[in-house]
Amino acid sequence: MTLTDEQIEALYVFCREHYVTYYDVQVELVDHMASSIEQLMAADPKLTFDQARQKAFKGFGYKGFSGVVEERTQQAQIASRRRVWKFFLSCFSWPKMMQTLLILTVLYCLQFYLPLSVLKWVTVGCSGFLVILEGFLVGRQWLRFRKPSRPLLMMQKAWPFQFTSAMMLNVYYNLFMGLRRLDGEKQFVTLTYDLYILAFVITLALILAVYDTKRRIYVTAREKYPAAFPIPAV
User: Fold this and answer.
1) pTM value surpassing 0.70
2) Which range of residues forms the domain containing residue 31?
3) Has residue 21 been placed in a domain?
4) pLDDT tens, position by position, 75-104
5) Does residue 46 come out as left (phi exceeding 0), alpha (psi in the -120 to 50 range) or beta?
6) Do 125 and 175 lie in a common domain?
7) Is residue 46 part of a domain?
8) Which end of the chain offers a freer environment for a tag, N or C, measured as fewer CB atoms within 10 Å?
9) Helix H segments across the chain?
10) How many domains does the chain have?
11) SS3 assignment for 1-32
């Protein structure tokens, strides 16, 4: 026999009552239990749904669901790390790297046509652009990447590190101050500009890669577990 929708929902409630909070783990447990219950009730028609459910639950051993949850958590962490790095590294494929190299080439060539006094303002403008871009992407992420109404294990610790433009600007500032002490003149020089545009292009590529990785993680979770995202994507 096939379980009804009400019985399937009762299994989800049963999982939550036994402290299985993550929806993706619940889905696996419910599928397993539903299959076992159907087999038990087909073999013994006198069994009620509740009786078959208790028998199916005993099949998980004395630990109940806890052993399955621990194993699933370890698997999810490994899978999440692999998924993150796969998405992240794909952002640095050759076609995309060509765009990055083009931006770097254009900025580098500016020093042959513009005086240092103007190049200094170019760095200021680029820094402002990074901050605005990051703010825009964070806002876009907040609007579009809705948190699931049901917690998903695959989205826990999905992003293992944090990166912001402020971190890059802080590193560059300290590097710039160090160069000023070394050259003795404490002036903005061509080497300073070259180091800046290199840091700028690397930071720009990382910011876009981080955003795209988070987007793809969200899309993957939404496609795999649509019931956990009742709010339509913007």
Assistant:
1) yes
2) 5-64
3) yes
4) 877 888 888 889 989 988 888 889 889 999
5) alpha
6) yes
7) yes
8) C
9) 5-17, 23-43, 49-58, 66-90, 94-110, 116-144, 165-183, 190-224
10) 2
11) CCCCHHHHHHHHHHHHHCCCCCHHHHHHHHHH
